[in-house]
Amino acid sequence: MASKAKAQRFESEIEKYRGEANWTRTKELARQLSQKTPDLGDFVNLVIAESVLEEYAEEHPPTERNITKAKSSLADVEDQLANLSQRKSKIGQQAQLLLAKLNFCRGNYQTAYELLDKAGLDSVTYHSCANRLIHMYAESFAIRGMCLEKMAPPTTSKYKAAEREDKIISCFEKAGDLALIYLQERDRSQGGMNPGGSQGQLSPDETVCCLLEQAIQESPILYIKRGQLDKGIQRFRELLRAVESRFTQDIRLTLARQLAEVLMRGVCEKSYIPLDVRSPKPNGPKPKIYPGDRSFVPEDQNEEALLLLLIAEAVATREAVLERSEELSETRLHAFHNTTAVYDMLALALVKRAQFTSLADSFERAMRFSFEEFHIWHQFANSLICAGKYSRAVLVLRECTRLQPENPTVSLQAAKLCFEYLHQYDEGIQWSKHALDVGQDHPMLSRAYMSLGIGYSMKAHEVKLQGERQILHRNALAAFQKAHTADPYDYLALFHLSLQLAILRHIPEALNYVKLALKYRSDHIHSLHLLVLLLTAQKQLDEAMVLIHAALEEYPDNLSLLLTKSKLEEVMYGPEEALVTCKLMLKLWKDIHEIDSEEGSERRGTATDRNAFDRRSVAQMTINEFSERGSGSIRAESVAASRVERALSEVASSMNSSFQPRPGSQQSWMLQAQIWLHLAELYLSLDKVTEAEACVQETSTIFPLSHQVYFIKGRVYEHKQRNNDAKVCFENAVSINPGHTKSLQHLGMVLHYLNENKLAEKVLRDAVNNDPTSHKSWHSLGMVLEALSQPEAASDCHNTGMELEATSPIVPFTVIPRLMQ
To answer: At what angle do helices 408-417 and 390-403 cross, to 10 degrees?
Structure first.
């Protein structure tokens, strides 16, 4: 009795280790059992043959490339299994299943299929089966499906072909369900622990074999290949609802990614079938699933795809391979490629919903396993750019440059951020030079020279010394000329070359280049705008008006063009005509603001939302163009001024409870404020002081401490000839923004009216130094010098002013932004 009990204990131990796929321990116990209980020879022989076969399959997976190796191996195992398969017992059936697997490894698909048929797979019962036996059944169904796929069809009949496809899918569905049952039971029997793994990875004897992995993943893909998209999606959902085990985490990641890809690429709003959380009707053995009650249920395909990708991201982040050893390099590379695919799709899903901050957070989590991986770092930088975190984006791009020093695109991206958002012109110039250092034969050479020219031109507006400014302008012109030489058909290089020539007042040459730019890109908004301003500089106002009407037909919502049109109408037809355009601008602002306000609300990703987002992007562009029109340039002082204004507004808000910042985008409110200020100036030109004061009051409620508000208040007082009050307002404007040329001009004239001519001279020289191309500054300085009895200097100023006025556009050329796209 004792020996029998001991043999049963050995058998139980062997079954346990078979279920855990611990073949080394299984063989040891089997040999011990054969010595103690010789009458269990068939069982022992089966277990030893099985162990040898499974160990071989682990080292040499049953794939096409290993067929030759398998044909020359396992001869002893084949003989042993062939002998055992003759038994009329469960051992015989198991031997047949293992023999079929051996033949499958050797590429003998017909033999393997016949052995599985002979084993009576369709008639087996799974209730109370040992876990190892469930695993064998799962593999056998998978092998049966794969054999059917690889074997030539016996007939050309379409009906038989469809029947064969149904049979293949049925095999994979049964295999997948049994595989999940096996893995769930294996996880339960081992207590859900992971003693052998490290850093979230499974130990070698805990990984899922390729046959089971393929069995789980194959059936939904086959449905979709047949055009049965709904059935494929339903099968994906069934597999994903199965209770998770540590063995299925990688498979779960792949399934979630694949279903998300199907939903994003192949399903539209009308064809989407909502998720049914009720338990599916049992049809054969089914794995345990999560209950549907109290579960979040997506409402559309975008929501479901996003949920799947977030799940996949969570799994990928948790299961990342952090070990950098050589033996794990292949595993690490495989995991990284899977994870990269998830993050790329997550980027598509979140960008579609304008959730840039969430995307940046996701990529930040990916940094822990993305050492030396350029793609993830670059995507992280792009997400930070979209989220408006420009300083961090530049730091990440610096790392991207370290990873790929020969990639000029990264350097140009960083330069763009420095120029357009951070106003760090010296750093941007260095980035541009780095892009040029890559070499003279890369396709981005023209853009690299263009970026360098933009940096020099922007820095020229920042420096105080006239000599240094002229050098920078010459450097910018030379860079733009090299950009044009590197790519003569690049419209953007031609546009920037023309704009630089216009700033230097080489008007005829600038006209030639901008017309060439429009020849290569006829709808480029900034080239059209520049051509309008160049025509006004040549005093061809009628032609400029015709062109601006044509441009507005193409871009009816462009507020920058509308403002130029209003200025042009004021000169040509009088302020009354310009007022009509101003009213249109206010209506457009209202539409833009409503779109901008939607950003805080929940976005569904519908076509309507996407159109709104596109239009909001256009609005953003016009805001950038619109800023600092009053001063004629975007300078470092302007950036500092905006920060000072924000700080003063916060102080005012804390000290005065009656003032609270307007909700929503402050840029949008800034846009409205500038429209009101322009309207106020028009009313002043019509001598409608009350209406102008109302516009100023309206602006004050938005940004009470803005230098623009102080400027226009000063203009109202100046119009009323209250020069002392005007002086205070202009001084306040200059103290907030020392680079605001208009405030300096009017402050100088008010001081002149108050007979403070020495101080007026100093202020007007500052205005000239800020913008040497402003003819108004030169004329005003000439008047003050006359009052100071300096006729020769006054004459020189008047002559300079007249020369500049002859080539002066309706609004300064610098209102057109220096953009790299």
So the answer is: 160
